Amino acid sequence: MPKKVPETLSAEELIDLRAPPKSEIPVINQIKLPEADGFIFGFPARFGLMASQFKAFLDSTQFLRKAQMLAP
């Protein structure tokens, strides 16, 4: 089932930027990652880099990687 990472901008900033309405895709939580059988990441590259929302999400999983909770 597809999931999306949390938005890093506030609701007010999204309104100011005229962002499109939110989709019905559920937001993933870092605590749920160890329960997954696998991961497939997909995102558009901006200037050769991943989206800042996804980078912030990966950075927030540091405690899982240190404890090797994502290792097979």
TrEMBL record:
SUPFAM superfamilies: Flavoproteins. The lineage of its organism: Eukaryota, Viridiplantae, Streptophyta, Embryophyta, Tracheophyta. It comes from the Eukaryota. Belongs to the WrbA family. GO terms for cellular component: membrane. GO terms for molecular function: NAD(P)H dehydrogenase (quinone) activity. This is Trp repressor binding protein. Transmembrane segments: none annotated.
